[in-house]
Amino acid sequence: MVFIEEKDDFPWRVTPYMVICWLLAACGGLMFGYDIGISGGVTGMDDFLIKFFPKVYERKQHVHQSNYCKYDNQYLQLFTSSLYLSALVSSFLASKLCSVKGRKLTIMVSSLSFIVGCIICTAAQHLWMLIIGRVLMGVGIGFGNEAVPLFLSEIAPVQHRGAVNILFQLLVTVGILIANLVNFATLNLHPIGWRVSLGLALVPALLLFIGSIVI
Predict the structure, then answer these.
(1) The whole model's pTM is what?
(2) Are 133 and 118 within 8 A, CB to CB?
């Protein structure tokens, strides 16, 4: 048996531009994490329930049972699950786009879809607007979760590949934390607290869009 020692003779060094590319691309994780954390808090806000789910709001006020009984509403569940369902389906399309058109374009599509969906959700006046917005945001999540980890692995030096790739998961966790802090801050911001919470999802999406241009 012959063992071949692999050597990395390619000259490289970590530059500020490289670090910026890592962080901007990893904002895909921040975008995903923020949405994971924000939806649960928004669905518990009274102003949100009064506008879109008045029956759930009434049940919340009068039913002294578990949260499952209070929030047992198919449309409310659709609001939450539509994003993840569309992310699942779109990830298969994203895989093909990554292979054919590259990671950069896929990341750009991800951020643009999420931005449009976020704007629709934030400005929503009807339930169907919320669902359409969530579906578009899910497309953005599906494309981003497919392309960003691949991109980070490919642009990282071999010696730092693990650390760079874990930036995605790290920012997912940071996004969840930020979302919960935002929900806490907007809980008593009547009647637009839920709009602020949903609208701030634009921040990581815009950073990712900028990243898709810069990188």
Answers:
(1) 0.88
(2) yes
Burial of 62 (0-12, 13-18, 19+ CB in 10 A): exposed
What type of residue is 206? L
Contacts of 9 (CB under 8 A, 6+ apart): none
DSSP 156: S
Rounded to whole angstroms, the Cα distance separating 66 from 8 reads: 58
Q: What is the pLDDT of residues 164-211, one digit of tens each?
A: 889 999 999 999 999 999 999 999 999 999 999 999 999 999 999 998
Q: Minimal CA–CA distance to 152: which of 140, 164, 170, 169? A: 164
Cis peptide before 149 (omega within 30 of 0): no
